[in-house]
Write a structure and sequence with these properties.
Layout lengths: L1 H20 L4 H23 L1 E4 L3 E7 L2 E6 L3 E4 L4 E7 L3 E4 L3 E4 L5 E12 L2 H6 L18 H24 L16 H4 L1 H15 L4 E13 L1 H40 L7 H16 L16
Antiparallel strand pairs: 1-4, 2-3, 2-5, 6-8, 7-8, 8-9
Helix pairs in contact: 1-2, 4-6, 7-8
């Protein structure tokens, strides 16, 4: 078509030259000139049908309001000049959403953020199923749509839907384990499972717009500021209790081993009162936060 259009243009120019050099009647000359002008306008119109498509770009073709298809192949093409060629990009885009405040399953306010990788998968739905005039998408000189503004409108749509999906997922699970809930999945412990659930919900919500989520993950998770200090003290208390339990378990084992060794090697004969006193002293020494202060007993074990 490119070669034909070039040859067509040369033929029109030669036709003009021939009319100018040939002696014709005024009527015939006027007819030839009008015909040549029409051919020149037709040739100019043919040039409008050319389009260049780069990798991961596409053109949505509309013929007088009717969708005719999408060209996704790369290269230089010619289509019907009366087609409206809407430019569309299929390249992946990132969305790093700001953390939002939501309530978890237990009603605790938390701050949660997410990161998305998305792209347009269905050009028909993206062009005609949603209003892409949001956030300033409009037209530029020549009536061509501003692709950057259009993509900002899609990003706005993705952000609104992703916030809704994130609120939904956050409300299904607790932030962290409570007592006797070690077997249940939480937002902190869920990891990839929570990300998979979030990605599934996002794809369901964005399928209407022909948008595909390639990756979705929670990248920020914390208690809201108003309860962060209280929850920190609770976590510290849990850690202290767990540490104390381990210390006591170790101390009991050491006391048991000491009494057993003394009895087996017959270092000293211990009755129940002596054993009780020794257990008390050893437990105090092993479980105390501060270094034990030795006391010299100048009497007997009983006085």
């Amino acid at each position: 078509m490119l070669l034909f259009n070039i040859l067509f243009l040369f033929a029109i120019c030669y036709f003009f030259y021939w009319i100018a050099e040939t002696e014709l009647s005024p009527t015939l000359t006027a007819v030839f000139i009008i015909t040549n002008i029409f051919l020149f306008v037709l040739n100019t119109l043919f040039w409008i049908g050319f389009m260049q498509i780069e990798p991961n770009d596409a053109r949505v073709l509309v013929f007088f309001g009717k969708y005719e298809g999408t060209v996704k192949d790369n290269g230089f093409f010619w289509v019907n000049p009366f087609f409206v060629k809407k430019k569309m990009t299929l390249r992946a885009r990132n969305l790093d959403a700001e953390p939002i405040k939501v309530n978890d399953k237990n009603g605790n306010p938390i701050m949660i953020g997410q990161m998305l990788v998305w792209r347009i998968a269905d050009t028909y739905k993206a062009s005609f199923s949603i209003d892409n005039a949001t956030s300033g998408a409009g037209v530029t000189l020549g009536g061509r749509e501003d692709l950057a503004a259009k993509m900002r409108s899609y990003e706005h749509f993705v952000k609104v839907q992703s916030d809704a999906a994130l609120r939904s997922v956050a409300g299904l699970y607790a932030y962290d384990h409570l007592e006797n809930e070690e077997d249940k999945m939480t937002l902190r412990s869920g990891g990839e499972e929570i990300n998979d659930i979030l990605e599934k919900q996002l794809n369901e919500r964005l399928a209407l717009a022909g948008i595909e989520i390639l990756e979705a993950r929670i990248n920020y998770l914390a208690y809201a500021p108003e309860i962060a200090a209280v929850m920190l003290r609770r976590q510290q208390a849990d850690a202290i209790i767990a540490a104390r339990e381990k210390i006591v378990d170790g101390a009991v084992g050491m006391v048991k081993l000491a009494i057993k060794k003394l009895s087996e090697e017959q270092v000293i004969e211990l009755d129940q009162d002596k054993k009780a006193a020794m257990v008390t002293n050893l437990m105090v020494v092993l479980c105390s936060d501060e270094p034990a202060q030795p006391i010299v007993n100048s009497g007997t074990l009983y006085h």
